[in-house]
Amino acid sequence: MNTNSVDVEDFWPLAPLQAAMLVASLRAPESGVFVQQEVMSLPEPVDARTFQTAWHDLVRRTPALRTSFHWQDLEQPVQVVHRHVALAFEELDWRNLDAAAFEAQLARYLGDSRRAGFVLDRPPLMRLALIRGRAGQVRFVWQFHHILLDGWSAQLLATEMIEHYRAQVRNIPYQPPVRRSLRHYIDWLATRDLEAAREYWADVLHGYDEPVEIGLPRPFGRATLADADTEVSGNLDAEESERLRAFARQHGLTLNTVLQGAWALLLGHYTDRDDVVFGAVVSGRPPEVPGIEQMIGLFINAVPVRVRVDPQAALVPWLKDLQSAQARGSAFHHLDSAALRRCCEIAPDRPLFDTLVVFENFPQAAAKLESATGSLDLARANVPLSLLAVPGDRLHLKLRFDRSRFHGDDMGALIEHLLNLLRGIYAAPFATLATFSPLSDAERRRLIEDPNVGDADACVDLDPLELLRGLARDKAAAPAFIADDRVLDFDTLERASSRLARRLRNLGVDRGVPVAVSAPRSLEQVVAFYAVLKAHGVYLPLDPAYPRHRLEQMVADAKPAVLLVTGPTPPDGPATVIDIGDILDPCSDDAANDERVRWRCDDPAYIVFTSGSTGRPKGVLVQWGQVSNRLVWMWQAYPFGANEMACQRTAINFVDSLWELLGATLRGVPTTIVSERVATDASALIRLLASRGVTRLWLVPSLLKAMLEAQPDLGRHLPRLLFWVCTGEPLPADLYHHFRRHHAKATLYNLYGTSEIWDATWFDPDQEPPVLAAVPIGRPITGVRAYVLDSKLRPVPLEVAGELYIGGAGVALGYLGPTDLTRERFVADPFAGSKTARMYRTGDLARVQRDGLIVCLGRRDQQIKLRGFRIEPAEIEAVLRQAPEVSDAMVVLREDRLVAYVAAPASSFDVRRLSAWLRERLPHAFLPAVIVRFDALPLTPNGKRDRLALPPPGELPDAGDADPVLPFENEVQACFAQVLQLDVVTLDADFFLDLGGHSLAALRVSSRLSRQLGTDVPAGVVFDHPSVRQLARWIAERQAAIPEASDDELLELLTSLPAAEREALLASREPAESRGAP
């Protein structure tokens, strides 16, 4: 840039927000995010020539409208005021269009113009259009880049232009206002004590390492540029607005402070945080600068507002503290965003804040425009969500949001929640913050009482032993269970279990006494289970496939009185051991005098062990009411039909095995027992299910996936198996759809539960909307309550993530042993209307969709926090499973890096191709540092994916030696080192996260590499490819994609270029070795 050019009137540094806008604009030049569009309706007649002349004069008087921005080859960007610019003014005739077509054409025109944007180093950064329609309709469109003007300045200029135009039309003299140059403000900035400002903000932002994001789901699919940004609005009516103003006046508060307090409360509810940070736009017009009110330029700045939301704080003192803090910080509002982020621990490639509040307090031009109306677009900002508040008789609120990040329905709900909080503030001025909720009464009722919390009635009365006796009487010879070539009929089951039950009672087994059963799935195990029921004991399944040490831990904790086993080596313990291997041998004892037992809902029924965080399994004690509720719900909702065949394939230590033992049997339906060998062999399992004509199957998604891989055409091989239930682990959407394509006549249900609640929610795809991004876990079953709550046990809004709690009949009695864990996980249910009601804290994150369906988002304790990012491994795994060569994936954190383990065939797997594929779909922080390939991922004995079996990836090779040196790596490496003044830069070090780079430094890299290599390297590419290796690869691919020009074409191109660009192009065509490349 030649600042001595005759066209240059002056130049000076950028104001704080201008620097941030420059970087953001260069990073995403086609986003149009900072293109401001003012549309005015003007009365006829409009003299186009006079109107254009008024604008010419305004541009001549206003340096800001003749300004361009330059950064190439400069250590710091500058803004240059030109003496002359060619005004971009067009007059359009759309009088042939009716009203609807006119509006549609205007929307297209604005969209195209926004996408076209502006080239920041080519003035003017402004466009004007006068558009004529039917019946004298005239629209004036004024577009400019926000880097030139803030809203205050735009309103001043609009007023000045209209007054000047009217004076010319009336042929009267016009005296423009006298304005001081922006140079005075820039010089004032240079006198500020930057160290004092840094100390202030470092204190305010101490410990702030993660932007406060509103945890709403992203829309399914991608928004296009044309619709990537939109808005919703709402307002308080005149009476409500006056009550809010009166509240503010009474307590010495500004309306802006009240609005910011309400926004902080809203963020607290949406993010479950007591410490929230958001951005606020400040005027940036220091009163000590003479004439500042009339200056034209970009003075505003966006600064962080940090608010502690203490639930016990009283509202008015809390708001006054917020106002005082804002007043103290006003002396330091001039610090730019790059300096602000160095005052906190936010990662360099993350936004300083995710939401922005704009309170419109500048002079309005509407009074000067008389019948002209306009709406200056002030809330557009480089954040995904911004709030614009316009005070007046009615407080008007407008939310502008990125449609690629948020759903319009969610934003409509959010603005209503903000209005609810504002209404609550003036209605309860002396309340504590805990009192205020964004939810309306109707929303709260829906979340707590309406369909998705189920019908938690009193205990379901069910006598399983009476049902079995009836079946033994009415269907004595009918098969109850089938194992290989052996059949157990109902009469034999009744007699054999009664004989064993008498032995148990003789050993002291009664209500609440545990009896362990250590046997594989077999007819003997079935008889033992029913014998425990008949003895009124507590059933304790011990899978003999488990390690002996783990079984002994379970026996030690549960303390069973009797241990029923098949096999010679039962786990050690004080229990009496009975070998049940001969329990089905013929016997004359028919148990005619069997003692009758009556099960009650509060009777302890079974113990099941689940994994514990300490490494020792924890036992869950469950009452009969849970079992009876679960059985009756399924029988009523999905009754068995004629000629059905059930299946028992779940390992006996998992709760779903209880359904397989009871559900079909007590309805007189036979059950096929799957042997241990067949249960883990997908092909053998399919053959068995087909040969036995099984009609219902419970399985984990991992096994379903294996079955589809073994036999994709499941519908043809298993035509009778139409009732499939996935449970035990999340059901991926791609697996769900894959199954539906290959077994169209079958229904795949999704069932959610844990050992502590058995089965709680159920998704029936035949009764719900189509599955898109995630398979819901559905709605609570009858008798069960489901809530999604925050850490303070408050219901969260629809679509907002919270922790899933389960209440009602599904809640177990608690854990064995010390009561601390039981008190922590089984808590009082404040919504059930009973002092004794409890609910279970699942530890799973979930959200309730607007249709009432619950979606599980993964374990709360599996969230990863890496370099200030909260990362959900399940999200990365879902993306990996969409890759063409990947069939399954798991992601874990190893030390300080993400490691992805993928199942993929060795013959087609290419880690570079997969890495490139991921870079197109995931944020940089979500990209795995290491990808490890398996033929198949390890599974637990029950078929679940086994994270604990994943091996560490081993020592990584040195980053510089990992691959052969790519073209341009030396140039990029040297550039990084020069710009950042570093001696050593490794090939895979991140420019921002590892090397300490910032946005302006990235601009210098872009500029230097573009000049040195003769290839345009946009700033956005540096942000998206932040390591030497990534950026060098991009440059190499870019150059390889540029076709070689012929000599004639090259000569024609060279003669048309300026000297500097001509030299750069010639340099780029030299052989690589002459440029010093290896």
Shape: elongated
| CATH class (first level) name of the largest domain | Alpha Beta
- DSSP, total strands: 40
Strand order, sheet with most strands? 8-14-13-11-9-10
What distance lies between the first and last C-alpha atoms, to the nearest angstrom? 33 Å
Secondary structure: helix percent: 25-40%
Overall CATH architecture of the largest domain: 2-Layer Sandwich
Predict the CATH topology of the largest domain.
Chloramphenicol Acetyltransferase
The name of the CATH superfamily of the largest domain reads Nonribosomal peptide synthetase, condensation domain
Average of pLDDT: 86
Q: Determine the strand fraction and express it as a percent band.
A: 15-25%
Overall tally of domains: 6
Class based on secondary structure composition and strand pairing? alpha/beta
Please give the radius of gyration in angstroms: 36 Å
GO molecular function: catalytic activity; phosphopantetheine binding
Keywords: Phosphopantetheine, Phosphoprotein
Protein name: Amino acid adenylation domain-containing protein
GO biological process, one term: amino acid activation for nonribosomal peptide biosynthetic process
